[in-house]
Amino acid sequence: MSFAEMDVETIWMDGEYLDWEEANVHVLSHGLHYGTGVFEGARCYDTEDGPALFRWEEHLDRLYDSAKTYDLEIEYSREELTEAALELIRSQDLRSCYIRPIAFFGYDSLGVSPKGCPTRVAIAVWPWGAYLGEEAIEEGVEVMVSSWRKHASSQIPTTSKTTGLYVNSMLAGEEARRNGYAEALVLNKEGNVAEGPGENLFLVRDGTIYTPGLAQSILDGITRKTVITLAREHGYTVNDQAVIGRGELYTADELFFTGTAAEVTPIRAVDDIEIGEGTRGPVTEELQSAFFELVEGRAEGHEEWFRYV
Ligand code: PPE
Fold first, then answer.
1. Which of 4, 22, 188, 261 is deepest in the core (most CB within 10 A)?
2. Quick check: is 300 in a domain?
3. Tens of pLDDT along 54-85?
4. 197 within a domain of the structure (yes/no)
């Protein structure tokens, strides 16, 4: 959905609350030319006890860690960024929304060195429904293995959520959509399964759950960690350091994506080959329900993961 059609009007930028149209940057900003920014994607859910940010502290940890890699100094404290996000939600009467903090090298001079360029920081919030469509949550999506490979972490740190990294995601995702698939699956430089363009991947086989390890050039997803925890609480064995070959995808019992935007989305086919029964599998359904019950505040436990608005 276009921002023009949304009922949102305020963005926090560099310490101020600005009108949506006024939250602009100079066209010669360093981050625009070289992809030198870091960002986050978090969600606020409408829980039974009111709107709450889900695992916001972990998103902040990752934001500061991502910035550290690039010597990008975020001069705002965790409390200031938290207050900004909460205030945007309160003042715009949002019950649930997506939260997008971003920090990047701004305007001063160009040339690859960002020396002299100030760090700009902004947070926007907006309503964002199911990432791959409402029916994807129940029916699952069809994906293709991309002809693009993920960056190796020796080329660009894949655990840092860097704006420039998403050129690779965009190429892979658009290649898939051009070919009629909802999303891509991306292999790493070694040819093993890494993740989706904006999602982590899980595989279920013979009742055991596998997900590629951090050394496989994946983002250290917060939804990934949540689902690993929930799966173990449900009695499953989870191998979270798995090395998954392409061929193992086709013979999996179930596959699913996780991500803040994608939440828990089943994958029903890879390269036109049906996975399992070609619908959402039972383990996926169980963990998906557990996930939604948790984030929507219908389940007990993990209170520490919520920051009430
Ligand atoms: N891998 C990648 C490459 C990725 O971008 C995301 C999130 C994940 C895994 C899952 O991470 P987490 O959200 O912490 O569970 N992708 C974000 C951006 C999506 C977009 O299109 O923009 C997101 O889900 O917010």
1. 188
2. no
3. 999 999 999 999 999 999 999 999 999 999 99
4. yes
